[in-house]
């Protein structure tokens, strides 16, 4: 009797063992195949993005001062003057590798262009600056080639950037007369966009408002905002915040028929991190606390740091 029970149980044990072994073997095979052929694309995309960012960095020719990082240059130059034009280091990204070699010995009129992070670029130029927003063109004295840039801090996202208008920095024409200034400004101009994903509150802060604060608070109100892709309801919503950063009305640069002339132009805001400010990298070492103070009503001056008031 016992022998018959054993003979019945042995085939079951064998079959169960075969099933378990087959499952383990299939799991091993799947893990090997996945690791080899189905690797996540994010690592590769990140490497490509980093390589693209590195290739777009402009290296300044060494002159009398030692080399500094882009963040240090931005902090020094922007901190020196918010009211008058200076030669600044700033970032605007070139679309062609040949543009990296541009800039020779151009002095104050030379724009310095570089990626400020993997998702933001900035261009800063001083001299004879003429902004023809209706043609998406900025004429700059002292350069000999073009740079193209999109002033929205989400460069890693092609879907968002597809909805941002591109601006071109061009040298002033020599053969033909330059576009005549129809409106002159004595303060720097700052061009940014509320295209992309703006309208979503998270992206309003992360992609536009926080980078805008990082890049313009040091001007102490003496800066003219030029907004590309303007949504009137969006501007009305954040007008109290803009009043903390500029003394002037925001200009709808895309649809403006004027040729605006500035002593200095900055295109594109600097991104640090989602909904945050890195005090080590920001001009004046401001933090997210300063951003919150700037966000408060202009009437509540008692809660704002004295160093931020103008």
Q: Sheet bearing the most strands, described? A: 10 strands, mixed
In DSSP terms (H or I, runs of 4 or more residues), the helix count works out at 7
* Beta-strand share of residues: 15-25%
Order of helices and strands: HHHEEEEHEEEHEHEEH
Low-confidence stretches: 37-50, 52-73, 79-111, 299-310
State the end-to-end CA separation. 101 Å
Structural class determined from secondary elements: alpha/beta
GO molecular function: glycosyltransferase activity
Protein name: Glycosyltransferase
Task: Note down, in words, how this protein is organized.
The chain is α/β, with parallel strands linked by helices. The chain has one domain (68-308). It contains seven helices and ten strands. It has helices spanning 2-37, 42-55, 70-80, 158-161, 201-216, 232-245, 288-295; strands spanning 112-117, 120-132, 137-140, 147-149, 167-171, 183-184, 189-193, 224-228, 251-252, 260-267. Strands 1, 2, 3, 4, 5, 6, 7, 8, 9 and 10 form a ten-stranded mixed sheet that branches. The protein is elongated, with a radius of gyration of 27 Å. The termini are far apart.
Itemize the secondary structure elements and their pairings:
Layout (H helix, E strand, L loop, with lengths): L1 H36 L4 H14 L14 H11 L31 E6 L2 E13 L4 E4 L6 E3 L8 H4 L5 E5 L11 E2 L4 E5 L7 H16 L7 E5 L3 H14 L5 E2 L7 E8 L20 H8 L15
Parallel strand pairs: 3-5, 6-10, 7-8, 7-10, 8-9
Antiparallel strand pairs: 1-2, 2-3, 2-10, 4-5
């Amino acid at each position: 009797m016992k022998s018959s029970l054993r003979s019945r149980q042995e085939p079951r044990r064998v079959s169960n063992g075969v099933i378990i072994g087959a499952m383990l073997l299939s799991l091993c095979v799947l893990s090997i195949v996945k690791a080899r052929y189905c690797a996540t694309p994010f690592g590769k995309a990140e490497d490509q993005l980093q390589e693209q960012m590195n290739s777009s960095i402009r290296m300044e020719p060494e002159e009398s001062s030692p080399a500094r990082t882009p963040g240090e240059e931005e902090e020094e130059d922007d901190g020196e003057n918010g009211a008058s034009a200076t030669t600044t280091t700033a970032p605007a990204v070139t679309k062609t590798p040949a543009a990296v070699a541009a800039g020779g010995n151009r002095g104050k009129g030379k724009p310095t262009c570089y990626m400020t992070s993997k998702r933001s670029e900035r261009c800063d130029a001083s001299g004879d600056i003429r902004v023809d927003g209706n043609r998406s063109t900025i004429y700059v004295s002292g350069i000999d080639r073009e740079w193209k840039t999109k002033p929205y801090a989400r460069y890693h996202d092609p879907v968002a950037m597809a909805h941002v208008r591109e601006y071109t920095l061009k040298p002033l024409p020599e053969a033909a007369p330059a576009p005549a200034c129809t409106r002159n400004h004595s303060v720097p101009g700052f061009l940014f966009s509320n295209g992309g994903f703006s309208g979503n509150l998270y992206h309003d802060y992360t992609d536009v408002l926080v980078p805008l604060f990082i890049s313009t608070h040091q001007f102490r109100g003496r800066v003219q905002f030029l907004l590309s892709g303007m949504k009137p309801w969006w501007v009305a919503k954040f007008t109290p915040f803009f009043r903390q950063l500029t003394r002037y009305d925001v200009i709808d640069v895309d649809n403006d028929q004027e040729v605006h002339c500035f002593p200095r132009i900055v295109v594109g805001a600097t991104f640090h991190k989602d909904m945050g400010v890195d005090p080590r990298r920001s001009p004046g070492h401001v933090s997210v606390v300063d951003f919150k103070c700037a966000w408060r009503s202009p009437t509540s001056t008692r809660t704002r740091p004295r160093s931020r008031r103008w």
